[in-house]
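*** Protein under study ***
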Amino acid sequence: LNQIVSHSHFRLETNTAKPLNPKTIKERLLAWCQWATKDYPVTITNFSSSWADGTAFCALAHRFAKPETSFDFEALNPNNREQNLQLAFDVAEANGVVPLLEVGDMIIMGNKPDWKCIFVYVQSFYRRFGTVN
């Protein structure tokens, strides 16, 4: 990967005019998620099961939340998927992330959500916060 990392800033973009292939974009977005959540007790290795309990979404939302929309991340219970997902989606939307996923859909998908749904939603986090330190 030709990831561009500078100080506390991660970017998906490249300095070349050559378009990125879909696999590279997916790898870079995954790396950005890992970078953004490195200070949280979550492990993000994919765009499916890593997001199922809602804590990875909560970590992203908490990382970029304005003070007035922040929450106590340490109080989360990984076994309470519905509450975690609702909190993450609400905080993300309050901070400018386009609401592309529904809690009910995530619950129905179970422990292995459709990676394409997660991937598209996480892109909305990147579009909103990708250049924020």
In short: The longest helix spans residues 22-36. The chain has a mean pLDDT of 88. The domain at 4-129 is CATH 1.10.418.10 (Actin-binding Protein, T-fimbrin; domain 1).
